[in-house]
Write the structure tokens for this entry.
Amino acid sequence: MNIIVVGCGKVGYTIAKYLSEEDNDLVMIDTKEDTFEKILESLDVMVVRGNGLSAKALEEANVREADMAICVTSSDETNILCCMTAKRLGAKYVIARVRDPEYALELDQLKEDLGLDMIINPEQQAALEIARLIRFPTANGIETFVGGKVESVSFRVTEENPLVNKTVLQSFAKRRPDVLLISVERKAEVFVPHGDTVLLADDIVRVLGQPAAVSDFFKEMGIVTGKVKDAMIIGGGRITHYLAKILSSYNIQLKILEIDEETCLRLSEDIPDAIIIQGDGTDEDVLRSENIGKASVVICLTDRDEENLVVALYARQCGAQKTILKVNHISIDLVKSLGFDSVICPKNITAYKIIRRVRGLKNSEGMSQIQTMYKIAETEDDRIEALEFNATREETCLRTPLKDLRLKKGILVGCIVRNGHVITPSGLTEIHENDSVIIVAKNEELSTLDDIMADGGGMFA
């Protein structure tokens, strides 16, 4: 697809990085020429120096042939106007980043009135991600497929867990054939496991299955899935604004620490059920006085990655049951190496949401069969994704037992949904027309189900 990205900041660069890896033709527009050096060194894109509101700059970026324009400058109003201009000049599809909470309740109306195809709010998306983690406190990540019929949940394996030092075959195929292990993160490595893979303490693993089966599996493992009753949030920014409203609706007791008086007053008005405390969330005396160690979950959402990391470390040391922290600059791998599994990065959440929309458009235009896509594990060099396909009659892999298909290395058929019935596949399982098929893939760009096959390579395991 031909895509224009206006704004070369953190979010713009991250979006361009992922989209350029998927055979899209990208042009980036920004007023700051010094931002282009890093972009041109690391990404295969074209750049245009200019204002995204300028018809001249958009014309230079070939907007009339653009399938999509994504506007992610630091100004909501600029993004909205830029999208309107790009649409008027011929862009087929436009996406605007809009962050101000005052617009939050009016986004649907804005889209309709201004002709925008999609509005994305990184902070709101981050808040939704955190809320999902809190509803399943022992999980590090939760994704759903096929309208909620299938879910994938990740968690850290502890020394006491029955999975430790056992093979995948012993723990899953024999004990829980209705739950499939689809990925393992081990230190700086991520991989799709095989039947003889031995799980170790501190591995972060992800399972896939029907929600009821996954819940039963967690109970068998002795992993608590109880409801969170209280939460402490450090920092009162935009994510906190959205998150507090969500958690209040869950009847979770909230305590928010924020150093700025004006922000505290605004939060008190917006979230009357929460306890708002004006104080430095990095001050040990303040944290101790507010009993940070007794909190069910501590969520670190200041504007500084370093502060979030230090407070999360302190909260864990004091005995907090669960910690969630936000980062923008620090490597997620580095943070996870310190034992933190629930790490939120708004720019990455935004990028992947846009990528899912791009793939959805390719699907609607016959360029792809992907229904949904989620990044389930990632390091600097590798990534594992779970993709939901709709099987069409044109696929050559239909009506063939999976054990007889030659699959690319790092490919796993995770789940099949046929006529509403969920099938956990074995080597004898076949894919039929109109099946929803969840594929787990490492470092592969897939557009159709047939892309999972290779002339040679590993057999289905």
